[in-house]
């Protein structure tokens, strides 16, 4: 069973290791002052798609930092492989003089975290016949629960614009009484949550709302500019 | 555990019901002549984000048809609710005179499929305290195995451009010896699979390849125009 509950139970043990950093150097009183997490596993070091993915993650590090998201990669390769491969990744993104990546790569050689978090892909195996880590994406909220989970096929590189889009939605909806509609991007109109009474709407959404008239006469399609 | 294996075991029983349609009216000898599947669950009928999502699915039905993808929605609401809500969805997308959607919505009132496929979200419950279906996306290949799995948060509408992007990659890589790099879109350069020998490259990729020189001297970053 892959319901959210399983992941939520598994995630905190790893992410608690960053507890010390959680209250550091943040402005504002909203949820942004506590850290979010992005954990991405990849099948193997020194492989084509993974190199383009970790290169993009490195380039996007400032975007994740801006959103207070700690990013971490994971595979079953060794620390030595991670160090060697890091040079290739930096060369690929045109940063040959840089020695490190702006995020850690976990060397899960014994597959302990991969098993715990359900990241192994039974259909992708190494030369010894052992399963490789899947191309997984987990976004963890400051409450240490799983918010987004994606398992991409081994053939298909991830879309980091989509990951950032969902994080923007998660951070907005964590502190405002809205949800974001299909294909939403930061700055676009949002939807008022169904449990907000008509009386509270004016107070909560001073920019106003637009209610779409529907055959059922139910008033649940309430749009508002992004609060 | 949410590894691919679990889903793969669960998916075929439902998707086998479309066996009859699998060989119908398709041209070409590639994998497109067998059907793909997209199964999307949503928390509840008559709710804001779900309405925008199913409206977008209806608008995109020709895109899925073009890719030979059978699309299906699922929630724990009744058939009667699905019929009433369909009118709202069509009104929302400006198709008030249309009575149906171009895809079925499964009425999984007893939560049988939702439990079988791990689609219930323990943190989202109805008035009776029973768990609702999560905002899940499953893409199933013609071999009846799970290819892509996404669990979006209840607050965040899906991105159907991303779903189509992954389907394009899956259908391409199912019949060509390439993978697609991070953020790839249809028509952009692809990557030669690591298991293709240098000798086979010329034969398989007549448009040529570009090998990126790397500090490790390994030749795994091989780009080629989309075959």
UniProtKB/TrEMBL annotation, chains A, B:
<comment type="similarity">
    <text>Belongs to the peroxiredoxin family. Prx6 subfamily.</text>
</comment>
<keyword id="KW-0560">Oxidoreductase</keyword>
<dbReference type="InterPro" id="IPR045020">
    <property type="entry name" value="PRX_1cys"/>
</dbReference>
<dbReference type="InterPro" id="IPR024706">
    <property type="entry name" value="Peroxiredoxin_AhpC-typ"/>
</dbReference>
<dbReference type="GO" id="GO:0005739">
    <property type="term" value="C:mitochondrion"/>
</dbReference>
<keyword id="KW-0676">Redox-active center</keyword>
<keyword id="KW-0575">Peroxidase</keyword>
<protein>
    <recommendedName>
        <fullName>Peroxiredoxin-6</fullName>
        <ecNumber>1.11.1.27</ecNumber>
        <ecNumber>2.3.1.23</ecNumber>
        <ecNumber>3.1.1.4</ecNumber>
    </recommendedName>
</protein>
<dbReference type="GO" id="GO:0004623">
    <property type="term" value="F:phospholipase A2 activity"/>
</dbReference>
<dbReference type="InterPro" id="IPR013766">
    <property type="entry name" value="Thioredoxin_domain"/>
</dbReference>
<dbReference type="GO" id="GO:0051920">
    <property type="term" value="F:peroxiredoxin activity"/>
</dbReference>
<dbReference type="InterPro" id="IPR019479">
    <property type="entry name" value="Peroxiredoxin_C"/>
</dbReference>
<dbReference type="Pfam" id="PF00578">
    <property type="entry name" value="AhpC-TSA"/>
</dbReference>
<dbReference type="InterPro" id="IPR000866">
    <property type="entry name" value="AhpC/TSA"/>
</dbReference>
<feature type="domain" description="Thioredoxin">
    <location>
        <begin position="5"/>
        <end position="172"/>
    </location>
</feature>
<dbReference type="InterPro" id="IPR036249">
    <property type="entry name" value="Thioredoxin-like_sf"/>
</dbReference>
<comment type="function">
    <text>Thiol-specific peroxidase that catalyzes the reduction of hydrogen peroxide and organic hydroperoxides to water and alcohols, respectively.</text>
</comment>
<feature type="active site" description="Cysteine sulfenic acid (-SOH) intermediate; for peroxidase activity">
    <location>
        <position position="50"/>
    </location>
</feature>
<keyword id="KW-0511">Multifunctional enzyme</keyword>
<dbReference type="GO" id="GO:0047184">
    <property type="term" value="F:1-acylglycerophosphocholine O-acyltransferase activity"/>
</dbReference>
<keyword id="KW-0049">Antioxidant</keyword>
<dbReference type="GO" id="GO:0005829">
    <property type="term" value="C:cytosol"/>
</dbReference>
<dbReference type="Pfam" id="PF10417">
    <property type="entry name" value="1-cysPrx_C"/>
</dbReference>
<dbReference type="GO" id="GO:0045454">
    <property type="term" value="P:cell redox homeostasis"/>
</dbReference>
């Amino acid at each position: 069973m892959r319901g959210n509950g399983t992941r939520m139970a598994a995630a905190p043990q790893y992410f608690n290791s960053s507890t010390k950093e959680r209250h550091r150097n943040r402005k504002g009183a909203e949820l942004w002052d506590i850290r979010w997490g992005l954990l991405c596993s990849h099948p193997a070091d020194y492989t084509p798609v993974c190199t383009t993915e970790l290169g993009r993650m490195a380039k996007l590090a400032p975007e994740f930092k801006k959103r207070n998201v700690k990013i971490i990669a994971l595979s079953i390769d060794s620390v030595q492989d991670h160090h060697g491969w890091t040079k290739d990744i930096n060369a690929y993104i045109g940063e040959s003089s840089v020695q490190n990546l702006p995020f850690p790569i976990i060397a899960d050689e014994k597959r302990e975290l991969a098993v715990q978090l359900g990241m192994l892909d039974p259909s992708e195996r190494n030369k010894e016949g052992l399963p490789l880590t899947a191309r997984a994406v987990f976004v963890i909220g400051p409450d240490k629960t799983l918010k987004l989970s994606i398992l991409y096929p081994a053939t298909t590189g991830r879309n980091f614009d989509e990951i950032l889009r969902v994080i923007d939605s998660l951070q907005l909806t964590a502190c405002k009484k809205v949800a974001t509609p299909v294909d939403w991007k930061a700055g676009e109109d949002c939807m008022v949550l169904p449990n907000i009474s008509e009386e509270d709407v004016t107070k909560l959404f001073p920019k106003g709302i637009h209610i779409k008239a529907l055959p059922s006469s139910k008033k649940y399609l309430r749009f508002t500019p992004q609060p």
